[in-house]
């Protein structure tokens, strides 16, 4: 079934109709049309741009990958680029969503089906009392869903940061410390990726509110302001998490240096303990006569000297916390 909807005077009248029928509805000023395209071909976008009068530069941006989140204002429509990030294990995977906004039509273009558009339609159904506001209502539901998922993702990353903080000062084997370092690197990379798509969202949402096309009426302004506040919270939250992860990483490297110094101190202490018996036995192994040479008591003197010096060095090093 096609992802299409037709609202007339704030009432949902049809959905799932072919995209080819859209041109029959947009001529009616009382009608609001939404349709969704997933990874469309260039010729499909050409047909849509001709029917809705979309600017060629906006269509070119849809076909180009890795656009930054932005809002472009054209004489007859707005063009928005946003990114959806769904919480999951491992590196973040972003889904680029291009949005065309006209007076009575909303067009969403997804680069793949990782973003479930059905969750957006459910949100529209839950707030159908605001459907009379037309395109502003539809666009709000879409942006609200994208920002809420950003917020959910920030919460999950915050939980990961707290888990890493708890593991930081715990005694861990070498393999676990390597895993901690890998997770820190991955978490920092995810936060940088999330920050890259969240920071421009402030400009996107505020641009929709202030645009000259007056898409957002005063009745819908508080709802867009709420989305803008969520964007600010997620942006600040992500920035603080990024700094916190940087501090955790520096602390982890500092602790590794302390552990290395402690290991070197212990190894040096044991080497000193071993060196003294080696010196004594080496002295007694000379090919010259010495006190106790070829006598049983000479053997016992050297043995007692080795044992006593080892015990003495061990006690001295232990008292200084070198062992």
TrEMBL record:
Keywords, comma-separated and alphabetical: Cell membrane, Coiled coil, Membrane, Transmembrane, Transmembrane helix, Transport
Chief location bin: membrane
GO cellular component, one term: plasma membrane
Coiled-coil features, chain-numbered ranges: 147-197
GO molecular function, one term: magnesium ion transmembrane transporter activity
Membrane-topology descriptor: Multi-pass membrane protein
Localization (cell): Cell membrane
Protein name: Magnesium transporter
Native source species: Spongiactinospora gelatinilytica
């Amino acid at each position: 079934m096609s992802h299409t909807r037709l609202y007339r005077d704030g009432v949902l009248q049809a959905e799932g109709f072919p995209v080819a029928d859209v041109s029959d509805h947009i001529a009616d000023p009382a009608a609001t049309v939404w349709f969704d395209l997933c990874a469309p071909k260039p010729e499909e976008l050409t047909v849509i741009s001709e029917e809705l009068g979309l600017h060629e530069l906006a269509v070119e941006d849809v076909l180009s990958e890795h656009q930054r989140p932005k809002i472009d204002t054209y004489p007859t429509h707005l063009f928005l680029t946003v990114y959806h990030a769904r919480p999951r294990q491992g590196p973040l995977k972003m889904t680029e969503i291009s949005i065309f906004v006209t007076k009575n039509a909303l067009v969403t273009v997804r680069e793949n089906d990782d973003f479930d558009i059905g969750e957006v339609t459910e949100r529209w159904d839950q707030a159908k009392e605001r459907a009379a506001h037309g395109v502003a209502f539809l666009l709000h539901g879409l942006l609200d869903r994208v920002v809420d998922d950003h917020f959910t993702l920030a919460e999950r990353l915050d939980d990961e940061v707290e888990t890493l903080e708890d593991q930081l000062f715990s005694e861990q084997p070498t393999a676990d410390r390597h895993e901690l370092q890998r997770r820190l690197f991955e978490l920092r990379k995810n936060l940088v990726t999330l920050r890259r798509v969240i920071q421009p969202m402030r400009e996107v949402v505020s641009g929709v509110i202030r645009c000259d096309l007056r898409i957002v009426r005063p009745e819908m302004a508080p709802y867009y302001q709420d989305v803008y506040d969520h964007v600010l919270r997620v942006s600040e939250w992500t920035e603080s998490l990024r700094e916190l992860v940087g501090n955790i990483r520096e602390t982890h490297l500092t602790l590794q240096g302390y552990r290395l110094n402690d290991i070197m101190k212990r190894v040096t202490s044991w080497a000193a303990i071993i060196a003294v018996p080696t010196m004594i036995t080496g002295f007694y192994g000379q090919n010259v006569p010495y006190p106790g040479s070829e006598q049983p008591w000479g053997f016992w003197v050297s043995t007692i000297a080795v044992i006593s010096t080892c015990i003495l060095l061990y006690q001295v090093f232990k008292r200084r916390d070198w062992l």
